[in-house]
Write a structure and sequence with these properties.
By secondary structure, this protein is an alpha/beta fold. The protein is about 35% helix and about 25% strand. The longest helix is centred in the C-terminal third of the chain and has 25 residues, at about 225-250. The radius of gyration is 20 Å and the shape is globular.
Length: about 325
Amino acid sequence: MSLVLVSDVGGTNTRVALAEGGTVRPATIARFRNRDYTGLAPIYAAYLAGQGDPACDGACIAMAGPVMDGAGKLTNLDWSFDRDALAACTGAPVTAILNDLQAQGHAVPVLPRESLVEIIPGPGPASHTAQLVIGVGTGFNSVPVFRTETGEYVPPCESGHITFPQLSPDDASLARYVARGHGFPEVEDVLSGRGLEHVYAWASGADVARSSAEIMAAIAAGTDAVALRAADAFCRALGRVAGDLALTHLPFGGVFLVGGMSAAMRPYLARHGFDEAFRAKGRFSGFMSRFAVWSVADDDAALTGCARHAKGLLNG
């Protein structure tokens, strides 16, 4: 079987592994802190050296940022990379660069049931039903997964930068608050790690600064009224945006939440109004019951997606 280097490149950390036959070798997974390196090439050089410099038949990496024509740029770190650079530092003749959510999308069809936590019940997927992956972490993005008779298609998107939806006076107030940064209230300004910090500062009424980790601890403790107001605003916003995206792509095969922030919020989603906000679509509210929502509890899903995509490329 072909040996492939796979990698999940985030704004803070980069994970690298080796895969064979579309399957990641768990023992080869390594994590690197981006701040310790000047770019991806030295990370991959260090990783391959640590693995004994194996000959790679392919390399596929996922980057947390826009990807076009074989080149990607991280949204939250000034790093760029392309297929030629990936081939040069890995020696792989077949290379691919995906958006990180695209990689998650390629993983979704093969995720085991034990790696999924049910958020909203719904029908299971049929053979050709679309699916939707929504990532909430350092940033925000989503991708549809179209499974058709001619193959599986996961187009790139940058939905974190669409306009934050506003239905209530609180929504409008929050939108005005986050728009102060660059004159436009985008979804990622609310639904991300730094977004939660924005929401808390807004909810405090006095620009009180807390880290996302401190806010999550306060939500868990349940004693900080500002943190609980922030949790309400965050979870309802996530439900509303997820519902909008579901109506856009019709993922009858399920909606899948991934990323560090969605995992951290998982225990609080129902308590803070996610379900109601997801379904609150006026005359289409009943229609929303056709979409199951799951949380993905598998940190290696993006690596699996890269491995599956690379296998397809190598197999022609």
